[in-house]
Every structure is written in structure tokens, then in C-alpha cells.
Amino acid sequence: MLNLLQKIIFLLPAIAATAAGILMARRLLHYFQLESYQFYGYSKTCLRRWKALLPCMILPLVWGGVCFITNRPIAAVIILLSGYLLAKRQANAKEKKPFVITARMKRLYVILGIVLFCFALIHPALIALLPLLVALAALIALPIEKSINRMYMRDAQKKLFANQGLIRIGITGSYGKTSVKVILYTILSQKYNVLSTPASFNTPMGLTRVIRERLEPAHQIFLAEMGARHKKDIKELTDFIQPTIGVLTSVGPQHLDTFKTLENIIHTKYDLIRALPEDGFAVFNGNNAICEDLHSKTMQKPKALIGKKGSDAWAEDISLSAEGSSFTLCLKDGARIPCTTRLLGAHNISNILLACVVGRHLGLSNLQLQRGVSMLQPVEHRLQLLRSAGGVTVIDDAFNSNPSGAKAALDVLAKFPGRRIIVTPGMVELGGDEDKFNREFGREMASAADVCVLIGKKHTRPIQEGLIETGYPQQDIHVFPSLADATQWLNGFMKPGDFILYENDLPDHYSE
User: Fold this and answer.
1) Over the stretch 131-152, which tens digit does the pLDDT of each residue have?
2) Which three-class secondary structure state does DSSP give residue 333?
């Protein structure tokens, strides 16, 4: 009995360090979750946020000294209490996207606990390696997660192909995927029973979850948004879904940080078209130069191009305003359909054309197309117009930002009367060209906004340079360390009749 008690006392610092490490790892695990469990993104986040991680790496070194100068029970109490207090302080920080304890995260926590205990047995100070230990635990968990994912995906695929008449539509692009998906859903629902992936569910497990939980035998069409941040991501999705119709919304410099080159992006996005059967149907956005080029290179498959007069669909009599737009939908079969929509911006007309071409291919009438366009609602956080009680109009384009999308948002902002304000942290994930794109963003911003509110002094420096290059008044450029600080200032600055564009909202792990 005495030997057992001695062993427990001996293990107390290691047990306490393990428990404290698990508590302190919450922020790191959140980073991992925000980066979709990708090791590259997690490591980049840790390097970018190293100052925020210093306390959880320095504190375990202090534990080493505590273990040296006092007995084990007291050291264990000090270790556990200090770890708890630090974790509690970190947990009180406001989060834009909350940490979610999923089944995968629970498994990762268990493996992390084992890893931490093994290192704490050697010495509690080794918990100072916490960022690396989280990565090690995730690496150990990876084969387990892949096995579980494959099991769920096989189950989803079995259910997907049990409906032999189901039309499977894949949608991808560097930007515009979610908007086109939502537009397609509304238009195709005029004739068909459609299931669409919600929000930005565009990964293998996101699609798997939708199919397993929501697909019914009565569904006639399945809309699958397909996202990619790495080569072969789209191929993995097309192997899974096996779409019969593919829509390529755009190709451009998005996620260059992970793709490395534009050529890799082009090849990856085109994997959707490559995967279509010989009797499939490929739709390309002709207002995007790369898409137009890919259309011309696509042979031996039915295809359609939108945008230019004489193509499969184009718009005439376009009228853009701060309330939406109107245009005549022109189809290659000779149809001329007057349309109105609440969606803002010329780029959304291109998105509508893509959806209408698919609709016509699937047999929708002129009236069904017209009615579907008229019923379109702004997509949340994508140029969504919000009226406030104080007379200020908010244009919410906070979901993400890319060079093409940012320009489209500025074009929309420029059409509003009154004082125009933009709030932005700039663009990210653009690799080595990020500063160049943000500098150009600043130059374009100068002609659209009367007041520029920038979030993050370091990251927005290229935007400031671009603004100043145009001669933009420096007194109208306001830089704040966080969105909360900017919001507090704006509350006293804005007045009725102002229009404020929120362009991009970086997640917590990108804040300076």
C-alpha cells in the first residue's frame, strides 16, 4: 500500500502537467480546427501567432523550476492551478468562429492527453513543446481519422447512388462557388426537388454529412459545392460524387499560399470538367479569361459558355443600382427574358447566367427561369444589404475576399449615394503576391470610398501605400488593431445616410 502511495505521489507532477497541458491546448486545437486539420496551415498559424503562444510555452519551464525547489504534491498543485488560470484567461478571449468539440476533436483530445503524459513523465517542463505535441497527437490520430472518414464516405456514396435518377451537379471555382450554388438552388427548385449543401460545406466530410443526414429518395438534383486549397482536392471530391454536370465559376489567384502557382489552381479546378462523363455537361464563365480558355480547350464533351454576345447565354439592357439589377437574359436558342434581381453587382449577373444555362439544359421554361431569378435573395455575408435603425446602410461582404471579389464589391460601393466607408483587413492566402494584390486593392479603393478603415497596421500597410500613391487624403485613412476597436470608433463617426462596406473579416488566427 505504501509503495502504491509513493508511486502516485511520484506521478503527481506529471498528471498535473498533463491536465494543465490539455487545458492550455485549447487555443492550439482551435487553430488546427480553423485550418481544417491541415498541418501546413496549422504550422503557419503558430508561426504567425507565436507571441500569443508564448505564455503556454514559458509556463511549463517555470514548472520545471517549481519541481526542483518544492515537493511533488505542492508542485502538482502549483502546476495545475497555474495551467488552469492561463487556460481560463485564453478561453475568455472573444472568438469570431467558436471552437467546436466534435467527435474528431474528442478523439484528438484523448490522444493528446496520452502524448502529454508520456512527455510529462520525462519532465513537466517538456510541456513547453505544446505546439509540437499537438501536431504530434494529430499525426498519430491521422490514420484513425482517415479510416473513419472512408467508412462514412462509403456509406454516403452508397446512399447517393441508390437514387439512380439523381442529377449530380458539381460547382467549383476560385470564387463565386457558394453564390452560384444558392442561385442554382433557387432557379432549379422551380421545377425540381433539389438538395444543396448548406453554407460552405465543400469538403469530402462536409458533403458526406449532408448526404448521410439529408438526402432523400424524392430528391431529383444534388448540388455539391467543391472547395480546394491543395492539388487533388477536387479530384477527391469528383471521385466521391461523380458529377454529371460541372460548373466552373472562375479561376484566379485564390489560396496561392497553399497552391503555390496559378497553374496548380487551373489544373485543380479543371479536374471537375475532366471528371465529367462523355455525355456530361460543362458550363464555363466566359467573363473570366482563364475559364474562357479552358472552355475552348474542352473537346468531345457537351459544354456551354456564358458572358459574351452570341455565347450560350449573355445579358443585355443591363441596369445596375444600389437596390439590385435588371437585364434581359439572352439564350442561344433565341429566348429573350426580362429579369430583375435584388442581387448587387455585375458579377452576380454572370452567376445568374451560369445557373440559367444549367436550368435551360435541364428543361426549365422561360417563365420558370424568370421567376427563379426574381426570387433570388442575397447570400449571407456576400454583398448582403442590411439597413440599420440609425439610417446607416451596411453592405456585408465579410465572408472572404479575393482580387476579383474585392473589385466587384468596390464597384457596388461606388454606386451608392452619400458618404461611402469601407472596413477591411485586406486579403490573405495569396502567397508571395499578397502585398502586390493588397496594394492594388488600395489603389482601387481610392475611387470608391470616401473613408477607409483598415484593420491591422502590419498587414494593411500595402493597402495604405496603394491609397497614398493615388493621392488619397491621409486624414481619411484610419488604422485600428482590431475590428472591435474600429467598431467603437465607427459608432461615434457614422451618421444617417452613410454606406459602409465590410470587405473580408479575417478569422481569429489571422489577427495581429
Assistant:
1) 999 999 999 999 999 999 999 9
2) coil
